[in-house]
Amino acid sequence: MEGDTFSGLGNGTQIDGKILQAFQKNFSQVQNILDQNRLLINEINQNHESKIPDNLSRNVGLIRELNNNIRRVVDLYADLSTSFTKSMDASSEGDSSGALRSDGKAGLKRNRPA
């Protein structure tokens, strides 16, 4: 798959295989976190409905974990957005290499207008 290109965007833009793998990895991580959040929310709701003091106290830690997971999802989506922007910029210049580092993250931050 390395070195392969895909033209799945419908506008003739090609995506490098490594970039596609990085997107799939990030989306998989997001899905795993969201699945975990669903379980956390179910447990939080059960604890709340039970009105048992120990269960209600446990909710404090569960809600903190849920908040941390939400932050992780936001960070992963930010990485995806940056990576996608970099890959589109690179492909519009005719070169998609270097859009992502080997760890799947963008090598540079996006410049925003002042």
From TrEMBL:
Pfam families: Elf4. One of its GO terms (biological process) is rhythmic process. Residues 86-95 have a biased composition (Polar residues). Its main location: nucleus. It is found in: Nucleus. Transmembrane segments: none annotated. The keyword Ion transport does not apply. Residues 14-95 form the Protein EARLY FLOWERING domain. Coiled coil: none annotated. It comes from the Eukaryota. GO terms for cellular component: nucleus. Keywords: Biological rhythms, Nucleus. Residues 86-114 are annotated as: Disordered. Belongs to the EARLY FLOWERING 4 family. This is Protein EARLY FLOWERING 4 domain-containing protein. It comes from Salix brachista. The lineage of its organism: Eukaryota, Viridiplantae, Streptophyta, Embryophyta, Tracheophyta.
